[in-house]
Amino acid sequence: MRAEDVEDAVAVLVRALEPVPDDGWSAPAGPLGWSCRDTAVHVADDLFGYAAQVALALPDDYPPFEVVVPEGVGTAGLLQVVATGGAMLAAAVRTAPPGVRGWHPFGDADAAGFAAMGVVEVLVHTHDITRTTAPGWTLPPEPCRDVLARLWPGVDAGDDPAGALLHHTGRASWRSVPAPVRWRWHGAPR
Description:
Layout: H1 3-17, H2 36-56, H3 75-95, H4 111-133, H5 141-151, H6 161-168
Helix pairs in contact: 1-3, 1-4, 2-3, 2-4, 3-4, 4-5, 5-6
């Protein structure tokens, strides 16, 4: 996957979550134990962390930092933090030297793998948040199909790539198969 895919996914998140009022972030994000706010901060943290993995090619862990957003920051500020993380990941992917690898607990990934992981984090957690803030919002099919092809090779999403992505990230049954309790993607290059 490419830097532009990360930017496009973040644009999807921003459009979906801009209508959330400043005081609408404290409810749980769908089925998660996190609030909508904590979920948005988690997305930003992952984007920054993946950017660091691509930029530094760390061999055995993430760098020791965490994104912290002060209490009281509203919708515009939360979305700005996520968008900044997305821009950092996109820049790292765009400028990564060929063959770069960074550590991930599911296996060392290349820049395209971290881009795909970032897109999954953005899309799936946007889905989690909108289950509370905008019921009825649906995932766009093309980026779902693209990340499935990259991170879950061999999955035939057919005409339901969003359903397949939600299933493979433990959020929904799909084709009469219950959602897995444990799941993983494959970020290592093929």
